[in-house]
Design goal:
By secondary structure, the chain is mostly helical. It folds into 2 domains: 322 residues, no CATH class; 108 residues, no CATH class. The protein has 24 helices and 6 strands. The relative contact order is 0.13.
Amino acid sequence: MTDAPLQDQSSPPRSRWLPTIGLSLWLIFVLGLMLSQWRVVMINSDGDACLHWRIGNWMIEHHAVIRADVFSHTRANAPLISKEWLSEVLFAAAGDALGWNGIALLAAVLIATCLWLLHRQLLSEGIGLLPATALTLVAAMAGTVHWLARPHLFTLLLTVIFSGYLRRFDRGQLGTRSLLWRLVPLMALWVNLHGAFFTGFVITTTFVVGNAITLITARADARPAIRSKLIGLGLLLICCALVTLLNPNGWQLPAHVVEFLLNPVLAHYTNEFRSPDFHSAAAHGLLIEFAVIGLTLVFLRPVMRPTDVVVMGTWGLLALLAARNIPIFALVVTPILAKQWQDGLANARPGRLLNFYRRLSENVTTRNRTADGRATVAVALLALVAVLAKPNLVGGKPAITTDVLSNRFPVAAVQFVTAHPQAVRGEMFNDYGWGGYLMLTMPAHRVFVDGRNDFYGPDLVREFSSVNTVGTNWETVLHKYDVGWTILPRAHPLNVLFSLRKDWTLAYADDVTAIYARKPE
């Protein structure tokens, strides 16, 4: 007698076409982002999506990592630190294949995969399906503030993986050797994908501090195990620090990132390094996250591990200091909240509402165990790619279009300059937020500045600011860099000044842009 029938009785057949809750979330986020206006938002927040596509294309064309600037006239041929060369190549490859649709699709897949991994982590830690799903959605709402088609999405993805393995190690589910084999290669990848690889060090340091506090307050018989964990975390920090040198710029990359983070002038020109504006809709997700934390503390009154307190406090403070840290805060705090709610629901007094929740949870969990749905997800993704690639495959108009907005960027003005190159002479002075777009669309003209303020440095950023705000030395700066024309928003104060001067003339204007050219002497 074989044991096959017994297996069939204990393990009901899985439905090939019914997706699990986790895969359903992944598919919903991909389709939701790509079939809504989010795909347009992801590439139109600023010029950085254009900038990364242009730089990635240069590296693809030259089969080399870019090491000197070829896009600006203010720092032409200056040494360039490549903070995110690998992700730029990936985004450029997606853009070359499917245009802006491809770049938006890569961003959507990265966002969806990040949330799917978070959901899987919660389930692997014993969190019920319903609270795991609900808290993943709360984390998603907080993360929308930074859902942009840019390399930082790789940092969000790697944050989930890094934090998940550290939690397993902290709870004794993973040994030091296994931790090193997993996270050290991950750091080597991270340092080539995005300049925010220091996030991994911050997360690890919070676990070090948490365990140090635990060591001070622990009983004598528990201290050897805690010391062992601290040694493992120390080894991880040392090994990760060493592998950060495995990048095209070696030690100069981490030194460059530290220098940028310590310079307030450069951070001022990076919007996501500013504190979140709680009056804006973008910060509502963070407020919801804080509300969940407040409800957890008030109603559950948990006794939290020191490590969890340090992680939550550190990233909560960092989220308040810089909006770019909000998604990371949500990703690392969600597992902590999920554990508290799981324990609270398990220990709650029985009642009608709780009994209903438990029946619903059991039914949903049972159904989820019989689901698979990988085939459904694969077919849906292939169908989406086919729709996005329609012009390349069969011709005709695309069914889904993604492009930069003509009321957000100087689309018509660029077309004018391309068609009438004689209208401008000399170098340009451009709007800061348009720099990346101009790099991509006007390769024949080098920009004054773009979103790479860490590359331009504080001195040039100050010079740009003095012109941009019509400071006392604005003319000196323009002459210094041989600026012969400007391309700025129509209502820019410099345009008002040019309209009153006889040595500048209006070369082009529309509702978005005005181009002024210096008259020949």
